[in-house]
Amino acid sequence: MIARLRPTLGASEFLTALLPSSATDVERFEKRFAQMADQAHAIAFPYGRTGLLCLLEAMGLRDKEVIVPAWTCVVVPHAVVKSGNEPVFVDSSPHDYNMNLSLAEKEVTDKTGAMVATSIFGHPVNLDELDRFRYNYPSVPVIQDCAHSFLCTWNDHPVHKEGIAAIYGLNISKLMTSIFGGMITTDNDALAEKLRRIRSRVIQPAPWIKNWHRRAYLVASTLSLTPPVYGAVNALERWGGLNRFVKYYDESVIELPADWNIAMSPVEARVGTVQCDRYASIITHRRRSAALYRELLKDFPGILLPPHNEGATYSHFTILVENRPALLEQALAKGIQLGWLIEYSIPEMKAYRHRPGYRPAPVANELAGKSVNLPLWCDEATTDSIANMLYSFITIAK
Question: Which fold has domain 11-202?
Fold first, then answer.
């Protein structure tokens, strides 16, 4: 079976994971990541959400409002709440999948402490519109959420540099991975120093056993996502037998992972360092696959293609369809797992429906109900077969 995601890993990552730990592994990864991002500082955390929580503290934010997209990963507002602040939700733009920045301007008040601008699925935030926001509200710092969009650009301008800091997630489903983990980059020396001090106070050292847990997870997750094995894994997943490994949220609870404050392990850092060297080839392949999907699906009625931007880095190729359950079922019957990454609009989740930052988000609601992610890791022949399956589905639906 073809899995909807699969990390781009080679022998180098597995070999480096077997090496003995070094006290400098995490620092070496930070330096390499900063070099890759062309920023002065990169600071590693056990999760991207942990980094965001610590970043908000480093920015001196407490009892403030933080503007966030209604359609994003729920871990973002979770971190805002856990930092002692309140997320204020803004609907998606009707022109792309990102936050509607015109609506964001209307949410700025005396209590606004920051805005998190997400380049969702690798589609860059419109920096022209963001510049207008920053000009009109210079006192509101912008945090770039690049968890899906490592080093994407808008008209050749790196999105991750257009703000006070950028946050990245590095789990196994991301563009590049350190198995788990997160990173914050910034060119602000004073902020970086505060962030490191907070990290040293909040984050506990990684115990030696974490190295072995991460090695085991690297091997198990990689094997489970290979076509010969994934059929059985997918059956277990649909049955619910893997919920403890794949279910990352409960819509009624605002929480962080149990190990949110346990430092990145040396094994994770070494794998991440190797992935930095592989980054350019990863993005080249994903852009090539996205371009192929765009060409193959351009004339399909009933399929809305994602916004097109040359600077996108495509964590996912996300289309919109009217009858998602039927499409997913047909794909499974043909040995293809399609799916979604964000099947919810956060303001409508039980945990947020009655909070002060609730705002109706009709566009986000529609996107959450119609979005389907197509695999980007595949070769050209597999991509073509997925497009043919979609053509068959649309033809039958008509």
Answer: Aspartate Aminotransferase; domain 2 (3.40.640)
